[in-house]
């Protein structure tokens, strides 16, 4: 299938990344490490390392490991609440990483400035139109708008709505869409709405190059969209960002942990920031048990609602080729439909 027209629609996003396709890999802790990231970049997409709870020396190792597997551009995703955020930014700059993605909250202006002054392009997540405008004013070079259909930490609004609210109005920087995207037809639709490209995470979990445990991959292949549900907040005094995952015993354990952490916060044993960091450490450990150790009962199975479109294990290059072919075929079909006489 000739995908040249789709590549033209992706041109702005691809130029921003320095890649063939404006397809950005979602940063998934323990999954988005050197092997998957390099495979994405080598296949013409843009891989992104998930730093998660890594300390600067560990991140430096992962960047170097990725650079040993690809000469193509890739980025690093940093969680804004990490206590050593600015050191992590410097770690990326020292390794000549060209794109730094800030996630999990609004990044401090000092971190954005340090990244840009060091020569990196800054990508930020915008969960609302007002924040999108604020982030552009703060120096973001590109935005990702991620709907609640996504896996892992999510906002409250679907991509369908966010795209309508933001894409017609933000033109100064490229805007990438994310959340629930699993087929090329959807990619085409968002490109036509004005998106510069897309971010996909769940679709790549079962890539051949993904180091995720076979049990983890099997859970994804078996799952339907309705199996990926968000966690609930148990007390409005202690806001916890919902996490979308396949429901299992680990989901129940998180609810118990959230209550215990809330009790410690209420008793004055933890500050709000320390309590939220404790929650993040819980997720990091639970996710590792599932992804690395294969404990799909008590570990965390973070997954987006597009998990129902993950039906087999296959190479990254094959997944990307399928997505691009689907988008190109949809574009051809639209052209043919336009030529058909009305009945």
TrEMBL record:
GO terms for molecular function: dioxygenase activity; nitronate monooxygenase activity. It holds the Pfam family NMO. InterPro entries: Aldolase_TIM, NMO. Keywords: Dioxygenase, Flavoprotein, FMN, Oxidoreductase. This is 2-nitropropane dioxygenase.
